[in-house]
Amino acid sequence: MAYTIQDIATITRAHATIACDATIEHLLIDSRKIVFPTTSLFFAISGPRRDGHQFIKEVYERGVRNFVVNKAFNGNAYPGANFLEVPDVVAALQDLAAHHRSQFNIPVIGITGSNGKTIVKEWLNQLLQKDFSIVRSPRSYNSQLGVPLSVWQMNAHHTLGIFEAGISTTGEMKHLAQVIQPTTGVLTNIGDAHSEGFESEHAKAVEKALLFANAATVVFGKESLHRFLSPEAADKALFPNTKHFFSWSREQDADLKILSEVKHEGQTIITAECNGNDTTITVPFTDRISIDNAITCWCVLLQLNYPEAIIRDRMQMLEPVEMRMQLKKAINNSYLLNDSYSNDLSSLDLAIDYLQQQAGKEKTTLILSDILQSGQYEEALYRDIAAQLAVRGIRRLIGIGPAISQHRELFTGIEALQTSFYHSTNDFLQHAGTQQFKDEYILLKGARIFEFERISAWLEQKVHQTVMEINLSAMIHNLKEYQKHLNPATRLMAMVKAFSYGSGSAEVARVLQFHKVEYLAVAYADEGVELRKAGISLPVMVMNADSATFDTLVTYGLEPEIYSFPIYHAFDQYLKQQGIQQFPVHIKFNTGMNRLGFEVAEARALGMAIRKDHTMAVKTVFSHLVASEDAMHDGFTEQQALLFNEACKDMEASLGYSFTRHIANSAAIFRWPQFQYDMVRLGIGLYGVDSADGNGLSLQTVATLKSTIAQLRNIKAGDTVGYGRKGVVLRNSTIATVRIGYADGFGRAFGNGKGCMYVKGTLAPVIGNVCMDMTMIDVTGIADVKEGDEVEIFGKHLPVWEVAKRAGTISYEIMTGISQRVKRVYTEE
Ligand SMILES: *Cc1c(COP(=O)(O)O)cnc(C)c1O
Asked: Where are the N6-(pyridoxal phosphate)lysine modifications (predicted)?
């Protein structure tokens, strides 16, 4: 469904400056995601740090001609462009989506709650897709922007909508309610997530209920709601227009009263009473969260009057929802991105975004199965996909399945796209050699029945069962958390030295570049070269440059730190020989660390030399705080800043121009906002570790080191474990051998009870000495441990700083000490 720009001006009550006719099919809120410029409408949305109006020029240059802006904007510089001026750009986006929603008279399920929204949405889709042509929120698009974009996908084929709504503060839900206009409301549960934005748990529950103000039917779990609202309030005041409630409960009377839950071999048999009859389903999960979500879906089916037999069949077939896209190292220096999340056009679009963000300039390959989607004619569907691929710069398409193979001509004509087609996954695995995959990024996108996990296993490097999982979404969360505390003009340099504190250079740098960090810093030139080879174009500071690496620095456009006159003169001479002028450099002053750096007293002489020699241009001047995290040394920190001010003043006076100044590391950003200057250097905080404990930031865990149990054995009291007979057991014990040792970075300091690992919800101590490739832990009494089970060495359950403390060291050393043979796996939520 398309709207003319005039229609949209009317719907959004905009003051319109229209230069030409236009038909709008796509709504765009991110300048990096332009696919169809001429039919896109760009919303210049202002966030806390970035103003969408800054991107209008870039977006215009890439062919977009339609813009929604706020009143302050002057559009004269853009010939042929249409501007809709509104007071609030986000509200205009929501109004447009709300109008679009009103054009459809189909049932719409709106889902909200603190947890489980996405799972319930995906499961309802799995349960109902045989009977409806469903439009639903992609992934967890449930925000003030995500909801309108989701609803915008509705078209005339659809017979059911399923959308989720998430809020973080009071006042947000009424907007989402207008956009979704649910006919049925589903409340998953109300927990403690995202409580900060609300006065009380009660206020949060009341706000969530606003989604259902006009829903005829509401499905909810009594326990979760009644923790916060009284039954009377729940029914009357909060749901004024609801005619029908459908509740479930384990403890109270309810439409679906749960009587028993029996767990058996990975399944749970749930028996409940409904309308006076007992009824039973079996679900392929045993954890409480999955069971609660499954019961919520069960209620929706009951409320839709599905027959018992169908409910039973379909509930048993529920499949886990893989919420994350995983980037893994694969054969021949390739990377594999496996997105089995869902298989439709809009999720393909998102997956390609992520692929390209990761791949940068590297080659990209899409391995795509038939898309099993009702409601769109096959030919039109593949024509749409071909149109997407044509503008996305994907280099190669491997289509697997009879339908995509049948429509191969739609793809073969696309310039610069190599194609090949196979009738089945077996056919592909038998005939495609692994050698054709090299130095590239491969996106796997397959419907479940195509079993792409077999392709994934085939392409993956299976080397060592210990992996370090890097959660890139958590890293971005942490970045934003620090950005919140920056003065508006302060820029950010991300420290990606030492393989990004062990997290992987190129992969991390790529994400940071995408999120518009201004500078990167590494310790050595080689680390910078690796970034350049991976296509990173951000400026990179090299902190430890020496004369052997000058050539490399210049060749790869890396900017050295100059910390002494000897290094200054050496680099100056080199640049003169090469005939290079004004090469960007960074000047480091020693203000108390006594490591590298000019003395403050040398500032004047240095400035004059640089001004006279003309070979270098000072980009930034900086120093390093030695104890910014520690209140005991606050006096010293202030002293350092005073010295730094003096150095900057003298440099600027003698140099004759100004430069960017920076001194703050992670801990100082928050503890010393007055020392943020023009830029800050964010290191360990990015990786989720707060070196000044409890300083009020909510950081997320980025790195999780995991391994598996290779063998379990029972031994008798008095037996010993490992080298040197150091691990003596005093009782009959169960010992697990884990596939990680000191060669992986799990040091001998953890031996003999010092260290522990997290197994099945319990901390199991290390027993005996740590070996080179293996470690034994005592798992006596831990229920259900099996060979092959996963073991967490550090991560969410066992924070890296606690692990570090046990070995008498700090998080930095543990993180950077994890050896390169441990495979890094990247995830994004
Ligand atoms: C490593 C480093 C940082 C970052 O320190 P964190 O404590 O990890 O934030 C900042 N500046 C310099 C010069 C560094 O070497």
From this structure: 497
